[in-house]
Amino acid sequence: MKLFKQIGTYLSIFGLPFLLVLFSCNNDDTLAGDLENTEFTNADSAALLFMLEEEKLARDTYTYLENLWEINQFSNIKKSEQSHMNAVRGLLDQNNISYTLLAYGEFNNPDIQELYDQFVDYGSENRENALEVGANIEDLDIVDLANFIDATTNSAMIKVFESLQCGSRNHLWSFVNAIELSGNTYEPKYLTQADYTLIINDSLEQCGR
């Protein structure tokens, strides 16, 4: 899957809506410096639209696979993915960035559509594949969010994306735990082995607190 490339040059203005602090995944609600950049560039808008569909990819895939296998992880995490979508939509709405959400299993982005089709086909074969798909999606999500965070100086977007990353790390941990309980192992597909090991060896995080 193609990841968005970093794009430079941003403008800075004062202020950050207080409610966005609620999305933060750490206990430090301050950002470095006295000025916070809340200007949304074209690249920032594209990143938000991409992540809206990637979070939808997770929700839709987990909904499909949960209906097939009745695995607790899918039942629980699909609800969290809806909250992730809502967080991204909040930024889109706040900044008057238009978007269209298609029906379940349908995507505007052809790359994400292709991923969805591949994931549901593979995950439909057996429970083991389904859990691997869940880990793949969270693995990918963490990396894509990291790339977008590195590519922006927009403080509002960084806070939301860091919160989504926190949730995705917990989701990955949960899927991998289920995979290992079934007697199998997961090899990271997008994360580096070092980053993956840090996530799996850590405990679940308290996101937003």
What can be said about this structure in brief?
The protein is mainly α. It has six helices and no strands. It has a single domain, classed as Up-down Bundle (Ferritin), CATH 1.20.1260.10.
Strand content: under 5%
Helix content: 55-70%
Write the CATH architecture name.
Up-down Bundle
Query: Structural class, from secondary structure content?
Result: mainly alpha
* Continuous helix count: 6
Number of strands: 0
In total, how many domains does the architecture comprise? 1
Mean pLDDT level: 86
Looking at CATH, which topology would you report?
Answer: Ferritin
CATH homologous superfamily title: Ferritin, core subunit, four-helix bundle
Instruction: Characterize the overall form.
Output: globular
Rg to the nearest angstrom?
17 Å
Task: Please describe the biggest sheet, giving its number of strands, its sense, and whether it closes into a barrel.
Answer: none
Low-confidence parts lasting 5 or more residues at pLDDT below 50?
1-34
State the CATH class.
Answer: Mainly Alpha
* Strand/helix succession: HHHHHH
N-to-C CA distance: 32 Å
Note down, in words, how this protein is organized.
- The chain has 6 helices and no strands.
- It is 60% helix and 0% strand.
- α1 (42-69) runs antiparallel to α2 and α2 (72-94) runs antiparallel to α5.
- It has a single domain (43-201), classed as Up-down Bundle (Ferritin).
- The radius of gyration is 17 Å and the shape is globular.
- The chain is mainly alpha-helical.
